[in-house]
Design goal:
cytoplasm, 12 helices, single chain, ten-stranded mixed beta sheet, alpha/beta, two-stranded antiparallel ribbon, binds magnesium ion, about 40% helix, binds 1,4-dihydronicotinamide adenine dinucleotide
């Protein structure tokens, strides 16, 4: 039987509570007996700082390097507001992203039918929505040099950020998007601003060239990023996969997220390059939300974002698409049955806590399996 190594990094606040629910789901799949998940747990963020004085230890990083997937909760909170910049809780996540070379950020926007009325868009626009935004995560204007604020002779200040992309950076993210599209709806929109940015021109060229080995089964359309933003609220179901740069991806993925109702519902994945020998990618899965200090420790957090992040691990790291579908179905039926954590509560529904939501999903899994 294949054994997969999972590193669980609960972190701080509700990360601890939502990862506990993931552990129960992992247990379920272990008992199902198709593969074995060997799990290890370590500290990250404020929890690691309190014990070791750093946001993640070298030993934990080593485990992350060796793991087949990392499942991350959340980090941070007011308790660590005053800690030095280099060891602040977020530094743990940034080091993981950097050292694992996680350049592709996958942000699905899925609207479960039961939650379509919680969306900020009309039900008919979002019911059954399932799109995937693929954001380039390690290049672009957030990292390009020069990056500075200088004082001019006039006394005025001048701030500069630089958008930089190379052919190889664009090609590898485009491949991730086309590979994903092949497992989904076979359609990729590539969003840039070639009309005003040189990086947009190169982006367009490289994505077009990369597409050649995926045509004709995967369709490619180029779309200007501002138009993409409009189309996402006008008619989001026209999209399957959207691939875009770091900055546009940051904005477009948050925009698309609103279609789904709540932060507590949003999973994500970050992938690295495939290993030359094994073809395996380094991968980290995490909810989009943070540590939610306002509700932490009270058993109120919605565990679905973190559970669905494990679902993405099943799909993208372990090639267990059937099991991932099963988990999605279990989540959908629990929502259809009216169970709601506080963040997605609607009139007439049945309010539950973190563990009750986890138990209900487990029970559905057992029924559907
Ligand atoms: P947040 O996502 O933690 O919370 C925003 C609001 O959404 C809060 O009212 C919270 O109660 C609610 N919320 C979030 N997730 C929820 C869930 N699963 N169930 C129910 N309600 C949920 O963002 P915020 O408040 O801006 O940041 C809090 C802390 O988390 C900060 O220290 C921040 O730096 C950190 N953070 C960490 C992230 C990470 O670890 N990747 C991402 C974002 C923030
Ligand atoms: Mg953002």
């Amino acid at each position: 039987m294949t054994t997969y190594n999972l590193l669980l990094l609960p972190g701080d606040g509700i990360g601890v509570e939502t990862i506990a629910e993931v552990e129960r789901i992992v247990d379920f799949f272990n008992k199902a007996g198709k593969v074995k998940f060997a799990t290890e747990t370590d500290l990250v963020g404020g929890a690691a700082y309190d014990k070791h004085g750093v946001a993640i230890t070298d030993a934990a990083m080593d485990k992350a390097q060796k793991a087949d997937a990392v499942i991350f909760g959340a980090v941070g909170g007011p308790k660590w507001d005053g800690v030095p910049y280099a060891v602040r809780p977020e530094a743990g996540l940034l080091r993981l992203r950097k050292d694992l070379g996680l350049f592709a950020n996958l942000r699905p926007a899925i609207c479960y039918p039961a939650l379509a009325d919680a969306s900020s868009l009309k039900r008919e626009l979002v019911e059954g929505l399932d799109i995937m935004i693929v954001r380039e995560l390690t290049g672009g204007v957030y990292f390009g040099e020069p990056k500075e604020i200088v004082t001019l002779e006039s006394g005025e200040k001048r701030a500069v950020d630089t958008q930089v992309y190379t052919t190889s950076e664009i090609e590898r993210i485009a491949k991730v998007a086309f590979d994903l599209a092949r497992r989904r709806g076979n359609k990729v929109h590539s969003a840039e601003k070639r009309n005003v940015m040189r990086t947009g021109v190169l982006w367009n060229e490289v994505v077009t060239a990369t597409h050649k080995s995926y045509a004709p089964d995967v369709k490619l359309e180029h779309i200007l990023a501002d138009n993409c933003a409009m189309q996402l609220v006008r008619n989001p179901k026209q999209f399957d996969v959207i691939v875009t740069d770091n900055l546009f991806g940051d904005v477009l993925s948050d925009e698309a997220a609103m279609a789904t109702g709540s932060l507590g519902m949003l999973p994500s994945a970050s992938l690295g390059a495939p290993d030359a020998k094994t073809g395996k990618r380094k991968a980290l899965y995490e909810p989009v939300h943070g540590s939610a200090p306002d509700i932490a420790g009270k058993g109120l957090a919605n565990p679905i974002a973190t559970i669905a992040s494990f679902g993405m691990a099943l799909r993208y790291s372990f090639d267990m698409g059937e099991e991932a579908d099963l988990l999605d179905k279990a989540i959908a039926s629990v929502l259809a049955a009216g169970l709601r954590t506080g963040d997605i509560m609607q009139p007439g529904m049945n309010k539950v806590g973190t563990a009750e939501m986890g138990s209900a999903i487990l029970e559905q899994l057992r029924k559907l399996a």
